[in-house]
Amino acid sequence: MLPAVVKLCCGISYRHLRSMAGLQRTAVAVIGQEITHLQRSGQIQHHMRKLVGLNYDEPTPEDINSVPAKEDQLVYIKQGQEAMRKALNMLEEKDGWNVEITQSNGDVICSKVIPGSTKVFRLEAVLEASPDELYDLLFVRLEEMHEWNPSIQHIKVLKQVGPETIVTHEVSAETAGNLIGQRDFLTVRHSSKQKSRIYLGGASIKLESFQPQEGFVRAEDGPTCIIIEALDKDSRRSRFTWLLNMDVKGWLPKSIVNQTLPRAQLDFTRHLRRRLTASTTLG
User: Keywords of this protein's UniProt record, alphabetized (predicted)?
Assistant: First the structure.
């Protein structure tokens, strides 16, 4: 399984989901508020009044949480926010999705060909964990992922850009039966919280100081997105939606890649469930 397949480790139109249009508006509001209230040179700058043609409500004073950021940090923050916006746009489009895999436990993977992009995959599952619990595992403690996911050799946070944005380097493990082989990834990841939903988005970036390493093919993510939503107010169960959008690079036939990626999503979800079960047992 490829490490990028855990992206967010940074992608909805099923009957058990809420209206996708409502989801899109909420997500856009989250991103819009963050961009709008970044503090720069002691002034509040207003950016992106409209995202993808949709208005978002002006936040009330108590909603404002200004984040001091240096000039170089703002670049990464905006890259992460833009990646999330694009990924949510893909999810918002209801037409063109085709079912790839349906599991007996209810997990479903659909695919869609995006113009000018590779084939993208959307996994939907229900997990026995709260949104905050999943956020902790998939973002806050990201560097520990290799401990419970055997497809990961390591994930290292290269830059911590405030509490919501990080830049990471990830290397896949060399495992038997991996048709695609080892890859490494350089990714900007961004997170947003809105009431009962958590959004994790990301995309590949380039750093002059961190060129592709010898012996690895550097694959590219994105934009990708994970949406974690509480099933109800008092439940510890979460609806998990994951858009996977990746170019593995190299000379692999598309047919092999398109068979491997959705299976890798299922593998990741299986490892994640085992980790959650182990936490419950220890707790």
Answer: Lipid transport, Lipid-binding, Mitochondrion, Steroidogenesis, Transport
248, part of any domain: yes
Q: How many domains does the chain have?
A: 1
Mind listing the pLDDT tens digit of every residue in the chain (283 residues)? 334 444 433 333 333 333 334 444 444 444 444 434 333 333 323 333 323 332 323 333 233 233 345 767 889 999 999 999 999 999 988 889 999 999 999 999 999 998 766 899 999 999 999 999 999 999 999 999 999 999 899 999 999 998 899 999 998 887 655 566 678 899 999 999 987 899 999 999 988 888 877 778 888 887 999 999 998 876 789 999 999 998 888 878 888 888 889 999 999 999 999 999 987 765 5
Q: What is the pTM of this model?
A: 0.74
Could you give the count of Cα atoms lying within 13 Å of 151 in the half-sphere of its Cβ?
26
d(CA 8, CA 14): 21
CATH number (domain holding residue 180): 3.30.530.20
